[in-house]
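Listing 4. Sequential folding, example run.
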Amino acid sequence: MELTYEQAYSKLEEILNKLETNTTSLDESLKLYEEGIKLYARCNKLLEGAKLKISKFNEAQELEDFDLEEE
């Protein structure tokens, strides 16, 4: 089962907290780092997918990015 964005982000935060405490061994730190990189990639992939879904068509039927600051 693939993690949702919220699940992946939460796990990533847990890993960061563990790494910041400096109480893990080198081997454990490396494992956590590897897992964190995978979680980061998952979050990034989900955000990119969401960005595409938010895109809209402008009047010329061209794909236009949705800009929250636009109005």
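-- end of first protein; second protein begins --
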Amino acid sequence: MHDLILHHYPTSPFAEKARLLLGFKQLSWRSVTIPPVMPKPDLTALTGGYRRTPVLQVGADIYCDTALIARRLEAEKATPALFPEGREFVAAALAQWADSVLFLHAVSLVFQPESMALRFAQVPREFVQIFSKDRAQLFSGGSVAAIPLEQARSHWPVLMARLQQQLAREDDEFLLGGAPCIADFAVAHCLWFLKATPVTAPLVEDYPDVAAWLGKLLGVGHGSHSELSAEEALTIAREATPAALPDEAFSEPNGFQVGQQVAICAVDYGTDPVEGELLFAGIEELILRREDERAGVVHVHFPRIGYRIEAR
């Protein structure tokens, strides 16, 4: 058995989502702090170029994107369930909406000048310039564009009113029932991002049912974790053997074959390609085999939704 290792940094909203998932599952994990901006040489030695945050490492298996990380944690510990029986589709679909539509609105609101001035008040100006350039590159070449601030401001009351209406019901405490699921945590990390400064916090706190619900979710904490250096994580990967492939038929409708050299990349943003040997294409998951002089032989896992395969 290998430790769960999360590569993340404190202010990343998607990292907060992963940390809350680990807390919800009451799992122990190791924490590797990564830079918030490129370059990230220790991380990309594991991923082959994937730069988004966070990344979950289990031995020599590297899991990209919180949509897939959630499923890996569900496999690690089935209860409490992130995908409740009978509501798997609704939970996954609502989480996908939150991770895309709601998140992009939150980003626009967080990155408004008044908010950024507070977030970076104690940060050297040089880093602010580096950060701004890095985020511009992150959204370059993908299928999504930043939502204009005026549009985000106009849409936000609608989005929050709908959440407020859903959470005002007396019969259910959370979005899809009496217990949290993946949909709750996908919405929560967007709102956690907004609560970071007094400029954007009222966009959550002005909706009492939403604010109370968010408090319960953040109250699950982050589980039990201890620090690990990036070099130690690379050693763990290098000395481990990747896990056996899923017991599921290979299914690739575009004709890619087992053993073919391909690149996999996100389609929305952070589209840096990861090249390797295609080992597995299942209903939810894609797996590449790649070898790195520092990390050794690793299997890099991606969700199928939101990613594309290209021939190499």
